[in-house]
Prior knowledge:
The protein is α/β, with parallel strands linked by helices. The protein is 46% helix and 13% strand.
Amino acid sequence: MNVNPRRHLVWDWNGTLIDDLSLVIRATNVVFASVGGPTITPDEHRRGFRRPISEYYADVLGRPVSTDEFAVLNDLFHTAYQAGLPCQLTRDAREALAAWPGTQSLLSMWFHDELLVEVEGHRLTSYFSRIDGVRRPLEGAIDHKGPYLAKHLAALGVDGSEVVMIGDTVDDAHAAASVGAGCVLYAGGFTDIEQLRATGAPVARTLREAVELARDGV
């Protein structure tokens, strides 16, 4: 009988455990309106969103977005997003968390201090052996998740070969691959399902299904 070596599960937060797509769309449209850009729909966001976010903004606006301008737009997004909190958990988030037999942690590209408040507000802190967001002051640009995941696992003392990640973006799949971890992608978040499938990672329509796939071995 094969034993799944993936004993530790790393969760994504935004778009995965938390159902915040509607709030993200509202905040993103505040950003675009501030510079005369278009109003996007959820489907357009799910097809176009990617990291670095500055490149996504540039695609939508049809022009380059400088580092300085992105810093301003990112602050504007943050303010609009914070004004819309709290969001509900994804429908089966608690069930999925309870279904994993090993250890679990949380890694988000959201700001660390605010992430801790939101996780505690939903009474989920006890599920996680570690919670990491992006710490301020920022160390460079917030672009890809891979380096953050490597630091997260180093702090946990866990090797990538022992890890499976559940997230909702192509960047989550790339981050997992960069450390030798497995990955299951959730189709109910920020990214179009065909883009998720194109990564080659298994794709789940519910978080409980994602955990089942992770338990089966990826």
